[in-house]
Design a protein that fits this description.
The structure holds 4 protein chains of 4 kinds. Chain B is mainly alpha-helical. Chain B is built from 8 helices and no strands. Chain B starts with 6 loop residues before the first helix and ends in a 6-residue tail after the last helix. Chain C is mainly alpha-helical. The N and C termini of chain C lie far apart (60 Å). Chain D has a domain at 97-157. Chain D contains 8 helices and 9 strands. In chain D, helix 5 crosses helix 7 and helix 6 crosses helix 7 (143-157). The relative contact order of chain D is 0.18. Classes of the chains: A mainly alpha, B mainly alpha, C mainly alpha, D alpha/beta.
């Protein structure tokens, strides 16, 4: 009797969450980065509430983008070093859905926590209540795309010298559409405009990324293991 | 056709093609520049500054074309394991990156007389800037991986993800640009579009063709280098090296 | 049209000629680096071929030079 | 048609004209062999001659420069999941996460391997002598114990093809003997083993050897 794909998927998801639970520092570091970077901005541009609320959507989104990127190192590196990745690649299940599960588990322990933290930081930067909700929704739709796109970069740079800096060079340009529409929605909401179109676009990006990137990441992982 | 898919035959074929392609490219450049700088009349709005278009626009077109070609070649190399396709992708990257840089610099030099400032977050320039970053990523990734096969395949995956993302980036930047730019500043493309006359269109097309052939000339030279490097253990490359070593001082 | 008005570019000489100058530099760099890369590979291969010969042979060859 | 089929079934795992390269160094070329049920193939050769690469290529992890690996006459590249379902690979890396317990690691390993393992985890841990360490985080295990934990996957997943890269390194003598018995049992039951090892294999079944560096 062999496990079906769903059983294996659940197994991977639970294991990755359990590992994150046992190594909380790894999860907390990108979050701390998010908080620190956004707290530095008022010191740089001055404490005037109008200036801060004008800059807040961009600052929060760029900080979330960088924090999400920094957490990517955790996605495959440990599994690559200890041989778990080989076992995944040799699993009798196709690699693509297994990768999707790993990215999902990674998002739960990175992007989702950024969403949870965001209202706090939005308050710090004097963002209105309505815009705060918009920020949380855009992060909820956008950070999974960041994780999915980032997984391709993380897989490509596995075991490559200068991997960390290289990863940022590969991944950040790909992130631009998410930044534009994520921050755009928050700005629009802060000035009382409709944000429906932004949400639809971010949702469309999410579907596109779900369909395309796990395949690319699986291909990249097989290349890195070769 | 299939005969030339072997690196050895391609090396010889490319060696024969390069002088011809190079000569045609040079003639097209001379003719295009003559039409563009001398024959075409000044624009009634922009005066002579619009003449930068004859290099900016072909460079911008080529920068996108080369990236798509690179991704296509990468896909062919990835799926059918064809070395020449890998080499084409690797050889294209620095040329594409340099043409993107050219589009950026000439665009900003055209922007100064048009907008009064060297850099405006115009849709075309911003897209080009991110395209440049994508090229840099591709080159850096391939440079960081020593194993030639892994390097080629990793680059191919990145180029494929990039080629899907480029239209999205482009469209996002246009959307963003229309939201944030005051209406008085139009994009460079919009400024040219209504005022294009045959006297301006002809040099533009000839310069574009010249850039296109220039790319192929240079990519063939680069591919010859790549072939030598990657096939260095084969008999035919060793033979070329030996015959070349007999007269090393004969070349400048 | 005189050469002078041609080079003046209706007052936009700085922008037009620096754009064309930069384009020329990029195009020439492309040719030079492509040719240089092929030569460098060839040189490396020659060194490799030399290194693979037995020490005696290469010493003799060196002497003949 | 039937004749061909009979031949194809006789030769199960087949390596045809295989060539592998690392960087631009060719490790081996024109390598052909086949493995039948009940056979143990011992891959020998000096360090760096491509033993690990050969094993990874037979698994399908590494793509060969030329040639192919076939299962029942079909390239494993085409079979993909179907072939991986027959395989258990223990490589240099143990595939063990230090922050998971020994039992959790084994459960995850067999689950990824597609085997339903709930009942057999405990007995497998016992037979590799780790039942008392079952709930200990794996980072506290010794090198030998980690190796044993990795090898326990073989016992749980019950696959016909075992591909083992230096399974005996870091193992103490006692468990080395147990491992040899396990190999014999697997081969006698009609399984296949492809193995590399620095230690001589003290098994009571005939060994087929290939040398890569000659």
């Amino acid at each position: 009797m062999s496990h079906n794909l769903l059983g294996t998927a659940r197994c991977i998801f639970q294991r990755d969450l359990l590992l994150a639970w046992r190594k909380p520092a790894d999860v907390a570091t990108p979050l701390a980065f998010f908080v620190i970077v956004t707290s530095l901005f008022p010191l740089g541009v001055g404490p005037e509430p109008q200036v801060l609320s004008r800059l807040a959507p961009g600052v929060l989104w760029v900080a979330a983008l960088l924090a999400s990127m920094l957490s990517l190192g955790r996605l495959f590196a440990a599994d690559h070093a200890d041989g778990t990745l080989e076992q995944l690649a040799l699993s009798p299940h196709p690699l693509t859905p297994l990768i999707l599960v790993k990215v999902a588990a990674h998002w739960v322990t990175s992007g989702l926590l950024l969403v949870v933290l965001s209202p706090l930081l939005a308050m710090q930067l004097n963002l209105s209540g309505h815009a705060m909700v918009t920020l949380a929704i855009t992060l909820l739709l956008g950070t999974p795309v960041l994780s999915l796109l980032g997984s391709v970069g993380a897989a490509l740079t596995l075991g490559v010298r200068g991997g960390g800096v290289l990863l940022s060079l590969l991944v950040l340009p790909l992130y631009t559409p998410i930044l534009i529409f994520g921050a755009g929605a928050v700005t629009a909401s802060a000035s009382g405009l409709d944000t429906q179109a932004y949400f639809s676009l971010l949702g469309a990006f999410l579907l596109l990324a779900l369909g395309f990137t796990p395949w690319a990441t699986a291909a990249a992982l097989r290349i890195s293991l070769d | 056709m299939y005969k030339y898919a072997s690196p050895k035959n391609f090396y010889a074929l490319a060696g024969r093609l390069v002088p011809w392609l190079g000569t045609i490219t040079l003639l097209l450049f001379v003719f295009g520049l003559y039409l563009g700088l001398y024959v075409a009349p000044p624009d009634y709005q922009q005066g002579d500054s619009y003449r930068i278009m004859f290099i900016h626009v072909p460079a911008a077109w080529m920068s996108m074309f080369v990236y798509v070609l690179m991704a296509g070649a990468g896909l062919v190399g990835l799926v059918w394991n064809i070395k020449l396709a890998d080499m084409l992708a690797t050889a294209s990257a620095p040329i594409g990156a340099s043409l993107t840089l050219m589009a950026l610099v000439t665009g900003s030099l055209w922007g100064k007389p048009t907008w009064g400032t060297y850099w405006v977050w115009d849709a075309r320039l911003t897209s080009e800037l991110f395209l440049f970053f994508l090229y840099l990523g591709f080159i850096a990734l391939q440079a960081a991986i020593d194993d030639p096969r892994r390097s080629a395949r990793a680059g191919a995956v990145l180029a494929l993800v990039g080629v899907v993302d480029i239209p999205i980036i482009h469209f996002s930047v246009i959307w963003w640009n229309t939201l944030h730019q005051p209406a008085s500043i139009g994009s460079l493309g919009k400024i040219i579009a209504p005022t294009i006359y045959p006297t301006m269109l002809h040099p533009l097309l000839i310069m574009s063709l010249a850039f296109f052939l220039f790319f192929f000339t240079v990519v063939l030279i680069r591919m010859r280098g790549e072939i030598l490097a990657r096939e260095r253990h084969t008999g035919w490359v060793m033979q070329i090296v030996r015959s070349d070593a007999n007269a090393p001082e004969a070349r400048p | 049209m005189t050469w002078h008005t041609f080079f003046a570019m209706g007052g936009y000489a700085d922008y037009v000629w620096s754009a064309y100058g930069f384009a020329t530099v990029v195009l020439l760099w492309n040719i030079a680096s492509a040719v240089h890369r092929r030569r460098a590979v060839m040189k490396m291969l020659r060194e490799l071929a030399l290194a693979e010969q037995t020490p005696k042979e290469s010493a003799a060859q060196h002497y003949v030079h | 048609m039937t004749g061909r089929r009979a031949v194809a079934e006789e030769v199960l795992l087949e390596v045809v004209n295989l060539a592998c390269a690392r960087g631009d160094r060719t490790l081996f070329e024109n390598l052909s062999f086949s493995v039948q049920p009940g056979e143990l193939l011992y891959v020998q050769g000096a360090n760096g001659c491509g033993k690990t690469t050969l094993l990874r290529t037979v698994c399908g992890l590494t793509q060969p420069a030329e040639g192919e690996v076939r299962w029942q006459g079909t390239a494993i590249r085409q079979l993909a999941e179907e072939y991986r379902n027959l395989l258990c690979y223990v490589g240099h890396a143990n595939g063990i996460q230090g922050d998971l317990s020994a039992a959790e690691n084994l459960r995850f390993g067999t689950c990824v391997g597609g085997a339903d393992s709930h009942t057999r985890i405990a007995s497998a841990l016992q037979s590799v002598g780790l039942s008392r360490a079952a709930r200990l985080p794996a980072k506290f295990l010794s090198q030998g114990q980690k190796r044993r934990l990795a090898l326990a996957r073989l016992l749980v997943s019950a696959r016909p093809i075992w591909i083992l890269d230096e399974p005996l390194t870091a193992l103490d003598v006692d468990f080395g003997a147990t491992m040899n018995e396990r190999l014999v049992a697997h081969v006698t039951a009609g399984g296949m083993v492809i193995i590399t090892s620095h230690q001589e294999l003290a098994v009571t079944v005939p060994i087929r050897r290939i040398r890569l560096d000659s």
